[in-house]
């Protein structure tokens, strides 16, 4: 949303009054929080402040706005209720990555213990891949009319994006451009006079017959310059090939002249020729090199912000953030890999700790209290009892958001309220402690069950994508894969399976769908009755998976440390590569590798072949309720959250994760000799 940035002095005075007033007064008054709109014009000035805010933050919340969601399938087809995590990732990668993330919101939160207050700094970045030179990437992207129409209805300022958006480059793109720059610089230093090297390479070429009159005219103008008192000559704008011929000719016949290509206000390129001595020529060359270096640094642009967040290792919080993470990596870091496991490895090297507030709100103990987990509704519900809105404060002199006036779908505002939602839910967990705690740190072990798990929209029995380990793999023995003529509709499928009671249909495409039966024992009956059918075909879900695996060119095995054995390795110079994520617990890993999955039920426990039971908590979205395993505290023994909160939390991300990794490997080696560790004793609802 386009927002006026004019803030009167009385606002800052009002803020100072509210800061020293009671928390209730500050909350009710809707304190104006820190916000800054960042475009290409002020990005250089703001960048140090952004990096400083990131370094000081306890956690960072993010949000993105895109030019569209799906370039082909409808949203319902893109989010099939029986997608596997691999299928969902593949569909999003194929149908969503050609859109542009063109507004990025960041809000940093730093807790001040003595004031019991969060200091917030929100930044709203406008992003646009403007080519800074002929050799820089000329990005192509698509728009979805419904998405653009929706953003326009919210007051989104598209002119600000396209006229003033901040550029960006991936590491690979930056490396290629720097190599080209160094190559040109080496040629210039070695040859003495400036020579022209076209982007596509290629050496000197002979002057074609149809260009000889043009070159002779240029030579005559240069002769006139040398015989006059004028110091410079601006040639008429011409084609790239003609400029190449000019450089080539002047470099050969007039080596002491300084030749440079410039642009008019209308982006027309022309050549300027100057009479200079050797010292002046070298000075101008140095100035030109400095300008090129500054242009290249400007072209890296917003990618520097993502690198600063990645380097900090801080917790990154988002709401329904799978697409945000995918777009961020694809646009600012490196193209997304084809395989899901490779994507997880890359994502964890960029963002070591992630937390999705939509998943958190869909989980016990929140799901029984929160009826709607959309961001706007979640923010409203978390401002009422039994939750408490956090007290926030903005540094003096900075502009901010007013929570009394919603600015939804502006990325900076959405990032801001996402952070508020996270704080409210985290602090609510503190009420289960003995004694209760009003503030729960972003590094608290109470939050570990939510780390690196991203909400999967509309998947019936897999509520999240596990970024730091293997995903849930329910058997889905009650599910059938049905193929049929293109003319069939949902009513035809209901008629086909009318004898089997209640069914659920999940469309895959025009000629196939999943049909979920109410009872697993009905599957074989359905298979038998369709054996001689000609117009349709029925397979079990297991047969469907086997067919897909045969067509798959690669397979993955999970190693003992919870990471996939994969030939893909993130370039450490590009992505800060390193497995810095939290490894899955023993209970979770054993649970995922167990081949005895049965279909989810509403019960809290589920038997395995070994006779032991696994405990679950419920997760719900707008369509269905299902169960998911909770994570385990490190160390193996039953641990009270009270004890956990008392432990120091100042160790670095890499050190703590290294310890987790070593403990995890040790537990795996002893798994056959030890009993599964106990779960959290408190709170009981987990």
From TrEMBL:
Residue segments, region Disordered: 180-207, 583-614, 626-686
Signal peptide coordinates: none
Cell location: Cytoplasm; Nucleus
Record GO terms (molecular function): metal ion binding; poly(A)-specific ribonuclease activity; RNA binding
Feature: compositional bias, Polar residues: 583-601
Keyword Nuclease attributed: yes
Superkingdom of source: Eukaryota
Matching InterPro entries: CAF1_poly(A)_ribonucleases, Nucleotide-bd_a/b_plait_sf, PARN_R3H, PolyA-riboNase_RNA-binding, R3H_dom, R3H_dom_sf, RBD_domain_sf, RNase_CAF1
Gene3D superfamilies xref list: 3.30.70.330, Ribonuclease H-like superfamily/Ribonuclease H (3.30.420.10)
Keywords assigned by UniProt, alphabetized: Cytoplasm, Exonuclease, Hydrolase, Metal-binding, Nuclease, Nucleus, RNA-binding
The EC number(s) this enzyme carries: 3.1.13.4
Family of the protein in this entry: Belongs to the CAF1 family.
Name of the molecule in the record: Poly(A)-specific ribonuclease PARN
């Amino acid at each position: 949303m386009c927002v006026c940035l004019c803030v009167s002095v009385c606002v800052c005075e009002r803020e100072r009054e509210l800061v020293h007033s009671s928390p209730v007064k500050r909350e009710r008054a809707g304190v104006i929080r820190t916000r800054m709109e960042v475009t290409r014009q002020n990005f250089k000035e703001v960048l140090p402040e952004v990096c400083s805010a990131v370094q000081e933050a306890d956690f960072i919340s993010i949000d993105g706005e895109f030019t569209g969601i799906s370039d082909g399938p409808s949203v319902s087809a893109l989010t099939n209720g029986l997608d596997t995590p691999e299928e969902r990732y593949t569909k999003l990668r194929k149908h969503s990555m050609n859109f542009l993330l063109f507004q990025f919101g960041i809000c940093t939160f730093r807790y001040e213990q003595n004031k019991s207050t969060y200091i917030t700094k929100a930044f709203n970045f406008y992003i646009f891949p403007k080519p800074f030179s002929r050799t820089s990437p000329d990005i192509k992207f698509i728009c979805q009319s419904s998405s653009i129409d929706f953003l326009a209805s919210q007051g989104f300022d598209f002119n600000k994006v396209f006229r003033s958006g901040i550029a960006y480059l991936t590491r690979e793109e930056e490396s290629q451009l720097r190599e080209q720059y160094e190559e040109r610089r080496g040629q210039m230093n070695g040859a003495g006079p400036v020579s022209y090297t076209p982007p596509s390479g290629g050496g000197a070429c002979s002057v074609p017959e149809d260009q000889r009159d043009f070159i002779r005219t240029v030579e005559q103008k240069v002769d006139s310059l040398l015989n006059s008192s004028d110091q410079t000559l601006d040639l008429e704008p011409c084609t790239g090939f003609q400029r190449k011929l000019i450089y080539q000719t002047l470099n050969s016949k007039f080596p002491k002249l300084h030749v440079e290509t410039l642009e008019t206000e209308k982006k027309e390129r022309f050549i300027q020729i100057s009479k200079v001595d050797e010292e002046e020529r070298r000075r101008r060359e140095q100035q030109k090199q400095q300008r090129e270096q500054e242009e290249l640094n400007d072209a890296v642009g917003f990618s520097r912000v993502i690198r600063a967040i990645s380097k900090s290792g801080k917790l990154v919080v988002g709401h329904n953030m799978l697409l945000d993470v995918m777009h961020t990596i694809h646009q600012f870091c490196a193209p997304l890999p084809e395989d899901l496991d490779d994507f997880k490895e890359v994502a964890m090297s960029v963002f070591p700790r992630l937390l999705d507030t939509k998943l958190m709100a869909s989980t016990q103990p929140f799901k029984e209290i929160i009826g709607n987990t959309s961001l706007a509704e979640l923010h409203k519900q978390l401002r009422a009892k039994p939750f408490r809105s956090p007290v926030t404060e903005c540094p003096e002199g900075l502009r901010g958001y007013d929570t009394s006036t919603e600015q939804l779908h502006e990325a900076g505002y959405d990032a801001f309220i996402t952070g508020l939602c996270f704080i409210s839910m985290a602090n609510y967990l503190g009420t289960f402690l003995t004694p209760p705690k009003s503030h729960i740190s972003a590094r608290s072990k109470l939050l570990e069950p939510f780390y690196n798990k991203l909400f999967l929209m509309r998947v019936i029995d897999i509520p999240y994508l596990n970024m730091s380990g293997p995903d849930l793999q329910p058997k889905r023995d009650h599910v059938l894969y049905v193929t049929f003529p293109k003319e069939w509709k949902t009513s035809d499928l209901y008629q086909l399976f009318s004898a089997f009671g209640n069914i659920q249909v999940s469309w895959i495409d025009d000629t196939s769908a999943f049909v979920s039966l109410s009872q697993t024992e009905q599957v074989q009956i359905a298979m038998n009755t369709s054996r001689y059918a000609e117009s349709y075909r029925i397979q079990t879900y297991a047969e469907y998976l086997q067919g897909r695996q045969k067509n798959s060119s690669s397979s993955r095995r999970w190693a003992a440390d919870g990471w996939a054995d994969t030939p893909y390795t993130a370039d450490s110079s590009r992505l800060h590569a390193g497995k810095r994520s939290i490894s899955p617990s023993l209970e979770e890993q054993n649970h995922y590798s167990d081949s005895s999955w049965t279909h989810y039920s509403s019960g809290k426990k589920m038997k395995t072949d070994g006779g032991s039971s696994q405990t679950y908590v419920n997760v719900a979205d707008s369509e269905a309720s299902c169960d998911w395993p909770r994570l385990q505290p490190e160390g193996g023994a039953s641990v009270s959250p009270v004890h956990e909160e008392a432990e120091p939390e100042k160790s670095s991300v890499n050190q703590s994760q290294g310890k987790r990794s070593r403990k995890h490997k040790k537990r795996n080696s002893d798994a056959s000799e030890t009993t599964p560790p106990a779960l959290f004793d408190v709170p009981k609802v987990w």
